[in-house]
Amino acid sequence: MLIWDAHTHFSGVDGDTPEQRIENLLRFADRMDVERLCVSMGLKWTHDPSPAELRQSNEDVLRAVKRFPDRVYGFVYLSPKHVEASLAELDRCVRDGPMVGVKIWVAMRCNAPELDPLVRRAVALKAIILQHTYVKTTGNLPGESTPDDLAQLARRHPDATFLCGHTGGNVALGVRAIRDCKNVFADLCGSDPCAGMTELAVRELGANRVLYGSDAGGRSFGSQLAKVFGASISESAKKLILGENLKRLLTPILKQKGVKL
Question: What is the pTM of this model?
């Protein structure tokens, strides 16, 4: 089956440079027949990045994309706390560069109006948006979004395409929060594999709105692939989740950039 990973990072991977880390990440991906990776954020993370830290993070990802342009797709890291700097990074990395998506983490909850200009620019550039979401039993970080927050943003921007990162960690809550937002797709990555979670997502959303992601190197490719391969769903649904859905979502911007599919 075609396997495209919607959600990977450099964290947890050996290497002193972006080139070394992406080489190692792809070495692990090859063991599991994962063909292409979406990578975001750099070698060093901060919950509330400055404009300079955003730029450095994106530089790291650009170096990885340059090293393996046929296998690695970059998502530009943005912060709604720095709207003008983030718009400039969108233009630098997506409009004028090779990146194909947006990554937003935990600096500010994503239902805030500061997200609106970033989403509008992403739509204009045909970039999809990966928004981290979580529902933590111990309480979320300050500024950390939930799937409900993302649903509010998605309703304001029905022409945008959003990936609900981790589907909130609690798939039962996450898929129900985004169920009526047809422009939001469930990214299953990161949480421990639990029996029935993928079946629930498919039942609530349809297989065409569910995506495989690993969150590697914070998680293993194998443990996250098991969520799909071990699910009691049809082979056609597994094909959609493992790669065909992500390929479909990325095709407009990849074709625009002349990327070979």
Answer: 0.97
